[in-house]
Structures are given as structure tokens and as C-alpha cells.
Amino acid sequence: MGTSKQTNNPVAAYKSMLRELINQRPSGTRLRIAKALGTHKSFVSQITNPSLRVPLPGQHIDTLFKICHFSPTEQRDFMVLYKKAHPDQDVSFKDMEREDQDVIRIVIPPFEDPRKRKEVEEMILEFSARLFALAKNSK
After folding, report:
1. Which is more confidently placed, 34 or 139?
2. CA terminus-to-terminus distance, the chain
3. Which domains, from first to last, does the chain contain?
4. 3-state DSSP call for residue 28?
């Protein structure tokens, strides 16, 4: 995960991964994260900068995963690093740990441009989240 300094520093390791994942998202993601967390963009920069000691508060992880549409693999890999850095913090995620969820698979055709593929995936996830919210509120 980069330099040996980051390897020896578990906080820097998860922050490096977080920064890399966020940088793969569309522009404006940092602002959306800041708004969802009720903070400023500078806080998002602090929690994604491996050189700074500002940790990512555990209560924000679930929101971060949802805003950024991290895949289950990305979530698991991130949580391995996060738990190494903060072993005493009990962080659990409803969406990651529920086994009773229904799953719908969507076959995505091959894309020459990986950024286009990621954009399509994010659009599908955003649409489904909006659809579920609408269905939940229309009771």
C-alpha cells in the first residue's frame, strides 16, 4: 500500500486506501461526503491524507461507503485496514453484515473505458438507492 512508512502506520494505510478509492470516484464526491457528514471539504481532505493524524471517526464509515458506493470487496479491504488501526473500536455495518438481504444481480456489458463502467455502476446504485427511499416513504 505504498511506502514502508505507511505500512508501519495502520492509520496511514487505511487513509491511503480511502484517498485512492475516493479519487476513483467522479468529481464532486468529496463535497457530497462533506455534506453527508455535516462538515467541510477540508475535513474530508484531513481524513484522507495519510500524512495527517486525523482519524476517520467510526460513525462516519457507513455513510462514506454509501456515498462513494464502495463495492463489498472495497468495504471489506478497507475494514481490515481500519480495524488494524483501531482494534478497540467496535464498528459494525448493517448493510455489510445482514445475511437476510435479497440480492439482484445486474449483468454489465464490457466497457473499453473503466471510468465509464464505474460511472454506470454508480448510476445504477444511486438509482436503486433513490428507488428504495421512494418505496420506503410511500407507505
Report:
1. 34
2. 46
3. 4-101 (1.10.260.40)
4. coil
